[in-house]
């Protein structure tokens, strides 16, 4: 059993009792007057109330974003970069409040949130720099022509985000969308909408024009669907589950607008026998249990070469049982609760499915309810062995602290197993053999492969999945380009009149 770390009900200094919507540079109540609560997953208590947006509020937010589009999109890239750089500096100054709120609304340990959020300002400065330095191309058109391209803002972009990394995932979308000159309407997760609202103050204070950044919290079926179905949105970008992705992509398809979806995952951590067992286990613990397993790139499947399998399992179980689970505000806590009662129920359901499928619970396997855990949504970090690749626990996204360990013989089997799910977001390959590590990475059908590491990210490094894990990329120049419309301008340099229908019998260029 994991070590219990007492859950205290500390006051959250940076928290307000109520958060209105952010529309057109103003804080406004929902037109319906409705609100909904945000729950602290560690204690089960209500943190605050949030204005509950629906279709009418989305309409107002889109109108505000449209109004702001000419001013923001018309600024030079240098002006936009300066504002984004100021936003980076202000965000860095206010980081302690963001960390405190992120811990309270997600239940993720303060150690994780400090480390993750400290890097957020980099996204604003990176994408400001991309806007500032982006050079268009001059394609080799041929003949007496010059052809150049230019990138234009799309207009109003709809951003729909999840609860697991509320500020990180929003930042990955907002920074490039704004850098490229778009205005945005954000529908954050109903479970963790506070930091997306706090970001509005940062951007306003940095000089972003009113209405360029709008936030309408609310539920997926109401505010989310209204935003995605809105006729005047120019692009949709969602991070969420694969089923939500299919629905939003279908709405984008109806309107013939671009869609980018960062969706579900079931990443494999592939460990070859030349890696010391202690190192393999440290890798697996981080990949599987950071964020209580609630990350899209969670190492949900640990594939271990057979001759070190028993030793790795033994050490993994020992270290899993020793993890300190508990109060996320305590810097010593290593794993917090799941984000909600619903997420806890999903994890419990899958653990039961795993048992019924014949897998062995080697560590954890149950909800934690004793004493300090009583009111929160805690589940023990769980290790399954005797898993086969066809089991549901090996195939379906659980999004919780559950890892399935499976052995493999050699490279071919490792690759077959790693590719043997409907998902293709990420994987990691662990080996001292450089040639083998690169060879296996190339054969893995996933959008991101780490070699001798897991879950590393940088604003410059493209992020996005294959197969059921989504379409499109976050991060990097490719993401910036995804927030633009590419215009091709073809210039005829000839002084001669072109008359296709003249009866002069000369051979003329047709295309
Ligand atoms: P979710 O799909 O339930 O919700 C995501 C967002 O979509 C929320 O804001 C929600 O309100 C909204 N939404 C739900 N239904 C909608 C609809 N019909 N129309 C419009 N919007 C709708 O996902 P979640 O539970 O918040 O997040 C967990 C999921 O996100 C996991 O599947 C995880 O793998 C995925 N995820 C992917 C990445 C990635 O980079 N690929 C990163 C983080 C999370």
TrEMBL record:
Keywords associated with the record: Oxidoreductase
Keyword Oxidoreductase found: yes
InterPro entries the record matches: Ald_DH/histidinol_DH (IPR016161), Ald_DH_C (IPR016163), Ald_DH_N (IPR016162), Aldehyde_DH_dom (IPR015590)
Pfam families with a match to the protein in the record: Aldedh (PF00171)
Oxidoreductase keyword on record: yes
Matches recorded under SUPFAM superfamilies: ALDH-like
One Gene Ontology term of the molecular function aspect: oxidoreductase activity, acting on the aldehyde or oxo group of donors, NAD or NADP as acceptor
Domain Aldehyde dehydrogenase: 32-489
Transmembrane intervals: none
Organism domain of life: Bacteria
Family label: Belongs to the aldehyde dehydrogenase family.
Protein name per Swiss-Prot or TrEMBL: Aldehyde dehydrogenase
The species this protein was found in: Pikeienuella piscinae
